[in-house]
Amino acid sequence: MAFSKVDRRNKLRKRIRKTIVGTAERPRLCVFRSNKDIYAQVVNDVDGKTIAAASSRDKDIASKGNKVDAAAAVGKAIAEKASKAGVDTVSFDRGGYLYHGRVKSLAEGAREGGLKF
User: The dihedral of CA 61, 108, 51, 67: what is its sign?
Assistant: First the structure.
């Protein structure tokens, strides 16, 4: 029997998380994409702390055109918040989603904002 979309994504997500771990020096930038919105967090997995978070539901980002443009704005916002917290290098965790469309736009926005990965 074939995997459903959710089961396939969770299988990929577990495989990715075996190798990507956020530390204090290089936290993990994780992405969650719903049908309507996109969310990003910078996480230190060793301490179990969220350093910065941004989403397309934030008031200043919510009015940014289509979903791909909103994802780029979320990337820039997370880069700005992370740099205020003293983070400039992260490990990118795409969360089992393909590096395409909104996920790619968020990553490029974060790179434009100054994050290195």
Answer: positive
